[in-house]
Every structure is written in C-alpha cells, then in structure tokens.
Amino acid sequence: MRYILLIALREFAENAKTKGFWIGLFMLPLIIVVSIGVSAKLSRSEPSRYFVVVDKSGVFGESVKRSAEWAHQRSVLDALGQYARGNLRPGQDPKLDLWPNPAAVDAFIAAGGKDAYLSRLRPMLRDNAPEFKEPSRHYVLVDLPGGIDAHASDEAILTQLKPYLIGDRHLAVNGGDAQLFAALLIAPDAVDEAMRGSAGAAKIQYWSTNLAVDDLTEIIRGGLDYEVRRRLYVARGVEFATVREVEATRVRVDTFDPAKAAGTETVSTADRIARGLPVGFVYLLWMSIFTVMQMLLTNTIEERSNRIAEVLLSSVTPNEIMMGKLLGIAGIGLTMVSTWLASVVIAAKLYAGPGADVIGPAVGAVVSSGLIPMFLLCFLLGYLIYAGLFLTIGALSNDLKEAQSFQGPLMLVMMVPLFTMVFINRDPHGTLATILTWIPLYTPFTMMNRAAANPPLGEMIGAVLLMIATAVLLLWSAGRIFRMAMLRAGSRPKFTQLLQWIRGRGDA
Amino acid sequence: MNDKVLELENVTKRFGDFTAVHDVSLAIPRGSIYGFLGQNGAGKTTTIRMIFDIIKPSSGRITILGASSALEVRPRIGYLPEEKGLYKAMTAVATIAYFATLKGMSRVAAKQRARELLERYGLAQFADSKIQTLSKGMSQKVQVICAIAHNPEFVVLDEPFSGLDPVNQQVLEQLIRDLAQRGSTVIFSTHVMQHAERLCDRLLLIAKGRKIFDGTVAGAKATIPRRVLISTESSIDPLTTLEGVAEVKPVGPPAAAPGPKDWEIRLRGQTSAQAILEKCFQSGIVLSRFDHSEPSLHDAFVALVGGNEERT
Lengths: 508, 312
Fold this sequence. Notes:
The complex is a heterodimer of chains A (508) and B (312).
Chain A: H1 2-16, H2 19-45, E1 49-55, H3 60-87, H4 102-111, H5 113-121, E2 139-141, H6 154-166, E3 171-173, E4 176-178, E5 180-186, H7 190-196, E6 204-208, H8 215-235, H9 240-247, H10 269-305, H11 309-313, H12 318-350, H13 356-369, H14 371-396, H15 400-426, H16 431-437, H17 443-450, H18 457-485, H19 495-503
Parallel strand pairs in A: 1-2, 1-5
Antiparallel strand pairs in A: 3-4, 5-6
Helix pairs in contact in A: 1-12, 2-12, 3-4, 3-5, 3-8, 4-5, 10-12, 10-13, 10-14, 10-15, 10-17, 12-14, 14-15, 14-17, 14-18, 15-17, 18-19
Chain B: E1 4-15, E2 18-29, E3 33-37, H1 44-51, E4 59-64, E5 77-80, H2 92-102, H3 107-120, H4 136-148, E6 154-158, H5 166-181, E7 185-190, H6 193-199, E8 202-207, E9 210-216, H7 217-222, E10 227-232, H8 237-240, E11 245-250, E12 261-267, H9 273-283, E13 287-291, H10 297-311
Helix pairs in contact in B: 2-3, 2-4
C-alpha cells in the first residue's frame, strides 16, 4: 500500500504541475464568469434604436407610439421587480404585481408608473439599497429628419429616407449622431384595409436594413393589432373595456410532483431549473471524465515511451504501478471536479443579473437535492470504468500517436451521452433512458441524468451494481494486459495474444 | 549467514520456441564485483530481469539475499536497466528521491541523500534542473545514482558504461569501486572488456543463453594458451621441437622480401617464456623482437565465445 501511495503521490504532484491541469481547472469557471459578464454587459449596453413612422392613416401612428411606450413600461416594471426582489427587507410584501405580465403592466401604467410604485416600495427597502435606475428605451420614435415632407408620395419619402436607413446620412439625436434603424410607412386606407382583413397590396411597409432584430416589428404589430381589434369589437357592438377585462383573466394551474414529500409537492420555478440541471451535470461529468482520461493515457504511455518501466518494476509490481496511477489521477480529477462545482455554486451565488432571484434557490435546490453526491458517485464509477479502457489502450500503445488511433473509434462511442442527454432529461423513464442505463459505458451519464426524476430504487441499485461490476472486470483485465505489456517493446500484440494475457497465459 | 548474495540453480527461460537462457547456474559471493559478459542477445538482460523477478524463469530456482523473489528484498537491491529513461519533467533531485522512497527511504532522508550524491558525482548545479534539460551522459549518471541512492547491498548495473565519455566512465568505475569497498556486491554487464578487466573480481560469460565461463579474470585468461611473438631472419626449426611448444605459425602474409619474419609460438601448460628465450640463444636464433605478453580478456572472450560457437 505504501508503494501505491508513493506512486499516486508522484502522479498527483507531477500532473498538478502541468499547464494542462491548471488550464482545465480554470477554464470552466472562466467560461462561466465571462459568459455571465458578457451577457449582462450586452443586455445593459444594447444601444437605443431610432425609428420613424410616416402615418397617412391618422390612426395607426398613435397606436404604434402607444405600443412602444407600453413595451418600455413593461421593461421598467421588469427592472423594478428585480430591484424590489433584490433590495426589499426580509418579510416585506409591497402587495404589487411586479412580474411583467400584460395585466400587471396595464395596472402599473394606470397607477402612475415607476414613481408611484417606487414611493410604495421605498419604506420597505433595505437601508443601503441603491437608487433604482430606469432602463433606457430600446426603441425610440423620432420625427422625420428635417426637410422630408410627410405628405409627399411614398416613393419620394423613401428616396429621401434611404440614405438614413443605409447609414449614409445620420439623424441628429440629443446633440449626437445616430443611424435610423427603421421606417414605417402607413397608407391612408390602411385601417379600412386591415379591418376588411384583406391581404392586398402593401399598405403598411416596414423598412430596415436589420431584419434579424424582430422586437420592433413585434411592438409595431402588437400596436396595430390592438387598434384594429378594438375597432372591430366596437363595430360589432361589444364594449372594448369589457373585452380587456375578460382578456386579463388567467386560469391558475398549480403544478405538483407526487414524488416529493407531502406538503412540498408544489413545483416551483427553482424545481423546474433543478430538474433541467442534470443535463448540466451530465455535461460536467463527461468533460471531467474525458479530461482526466487524457491525462491517464499520457501518463500510462510515459513509462514505456521513456523506458522507465523496467527500473520501476525492480521496485514495485505492475499492479502497484497501475493502482498508484489510478489513485493519483483520480485525485487530480476530484480536485478539478470539486473546483468546478464550487465555482458554479459560487458564481450562482454572486450572480446578480436577470433571473438571479430564481437561480439562487435553484442552486440551493441542487445542493440539497442529493445530485452532488450522485455526481461524485457517477464520476468515481465512470472514472474507473473508462480508466479500465484507457489503461488498456495506454498499455498497448508505444506512443501517443498509436494511442490516438485506438482512441478514435472509442471517441465516437463516447459521444452518445452528449447527443442523448437532452432527450433523456425530457423523458427520464422512457425507452432510451432505460436502454442506456443498462449499457455500462453509458450508465454513469444516464443515471446522472435521471437522478433528479427519482428513478425506481431497484433500477438505481442495479445500475450502481452494474457500474461496479463493469469497473472491476475492466480494471482486472487491464491489470493483466498492463502487466504483460509493461516490458513489451515494438509491435502491438495481436488480439489473440491479448486474450491469452487476460486469461493469464503467454509471455511478455 | 549465507555468504552468497545471489544463487541461480539450473535457470532456464523460454519465449515460445526460443530459449533465451539455458540451464544457467551460478553463485555470487558477498562483496565481489562481478562482470556479466556476453554478446548482444546472449541472454544477459533476460537473466537480470529474472533475478529481479520482473519475468519468471521457465524452470530453475533463484535465491536473492536469501529470498525467493527480489520483491521481498527490494529495499536492499538496486538496478540500472539497460534501457535507460527517466521522467522527463521531474528534476534530478526529485527523481533520485522518488526512486529512493520506492526503496523504502523516508522522503526527507531521500531528498538529502539525493543532493549529497549529486554533489559527490559532480552534478550539484543540475540538482534542480528537469531531466529533459540534461545531456544524455548527465541523465545516465542521474540514473546510476537512482540505482544506488538507498545504499543497496546488491546492485546490478546493466551496460552502465554505454554512452558515457571516458572521463565519466572513470567516475563510474570509481563509483563501482566505492560500492564494493562499502561491502556491496555489484554485478555489471558490459561488452567493453577493459572495464571488466580493470574492475571485476569474477566473471560470468554467457553466449546464446548458455554459461560458458564462470570464474576469476585470471582463470578466464588461463583458458587460452599463452604465446610468444618473435621476429627473426633465422630458421626457427629448433623451436618447433622444444618441449612445451604447442604450435609455431607465421604471423601476417608470407613476406617475399628478405628481412625478419614474425612468428607466433603458442605455449603448452605452464611452460615459461624463459625456456623459449634460452633455446633461441642456444640455437643462435637472432631475435629482432621478443614479445611475451599476457593474453587480454578480450582474447579470452573471443576464444571462449568462438570455441563455444564451434561446439554448437
């Protein structure tokens, strides 16, 4: 045992010194931090976009303006909701609907907007709460650039607008220059046409060079639809206020999970996220196992390609070498995995962007759900199973190049958990999930994925036993091959020779 | 206490149809420097691997320091394999310390000992360099130090001199003598006869897996007849009939030109060269050269291996 530990210690220390280890260690946390930072930065710094409306109908222009204002108020309410959730003193309830659903936005606007809500919230806020910052408008309706006559023909107006839309000319906005993002041209008879439901000539034209951003067209369409529907209701003698009231009705559906303890069956948003998280864990598991396998492979080849095997074998047995390597590299893997997990949890705790109030409880749910112990179990057993395969490959290869030719086909087989992880998560007790559970190479990934959905206990135990049995079998045969291959040099052994080695016969 | 550090009894190793080592027996006394001589592929490395229980003999028995497997006595033995290599990314001192801890030394003692030895053998300034930055000769010295850092009672050095420059070869010879002086038993294999001749108390000579000689250096030399080389213009007929002369033959191509000719006179048994010299004076043979030198180990080796080949 002393020798195994000595070897493990060396493996751990030498691998911990490599650049690859440190890159691996910090890459994932770095990616998380950077992507959170970038997305937060992007959402904050999205520039305001300017558009013009040439309304010859005399009706729709106002509708679009109102719709754009409504969209802005919704984003204000959304920001206000986040602000309140982040800064209210515990136990305080402002009794305001701060989720940006349509009825809440209407109520928000009717009550007087952010000033009214803020005066209501302020007494309930923490002492050190920062000032609320109103988000900037994404889409700003501006007047036609100077010199363009709104009553001219469409062609004439477009000819004059096009240089602005293309970016050859700029609008003067707040003392600066800005490009015109879009122009909306509404024909005089557009309202009648829309109420007839006709799909005739283009009565309403949206001009923009950027057709990838479709929020603005949604805002415009929403405003137009609202106005036309209102008119249609009135035309048919239905009171529109009643319609709005009726439309505000929402049927409440509460979701429950029979597998959860009595009294806690309610499924919260955090629960939903927790259920999706196994996919993240599967990905983490896959990444960690195969990062570590690469190290194991390189290190197994090192002794032979550097001709260290023989001097080692005068001090220790091949089994001790193998066990030492397994143990040392497992240590490396566990260090990496714990760093990753810790960084995910810490990042989630520190994260304060959109949806932070949901992610926090979700991470809490993960921590308390038993998924982490399951992850560690799947990591260890998966590690041992794949180590059996990679040790064999390492023992049979004289150098890394040879190893890679073995590794190619294995890599294809190994991609399956990645391709299937989303489907298994969606249907954790389905045929695919059940089949993959019983294929030992996929058992760790599949069990990790199904863990949150409470698979039958019998299946869990069976899967764990299968993983242990597979690991033992593969490591045992890897041990036989490893022992015979340690001193072998030159050509690869034939398959029949391998079988002899596994059966314990044949010569090195 | 057994004064034999290593005993091989009728050891044979077969790989499939090929017999690498054939019925070798041998006993190595404590405190000696023992040379393993043989051509490439003679079975030296296979024999050494069996001694260290890295591979098992097909038949026969090996006793090392009283144990039946080298693994039982691994802290007391040291090994420098023929295939030399080290962990490239480790420093010299860490490498030596690592192998010493695998031989049972504590980590602290191993580190200290590693530095001490690096200093003694002129590598102090490279102690903290990575192996991959060392020259081949330096890394080979590090490897020799790895084999002896734990003060083993019994050391096997397989081809320790190959790849070393003459200066470092001398350092290594001194190292081997130091080991023997401290009471360690050293086996080293080589095919450079001068090293064996200078260092060894005893020799084992194997060819094609068979032991063809086991004994002292003098004993090896005694296996080939002693000889005298002379140059003369006179007739050498009187010498051919002398008792104790086995054979007289010309050396080199028969010279057409007049002048002294070279002759080799092989002596029988304990015949002294003095008798030849006396006979020359008596018979009036005018000598322009009389050369009586001991046969070298090289001659003995060639003769023994050649003889073995003729027999098989």
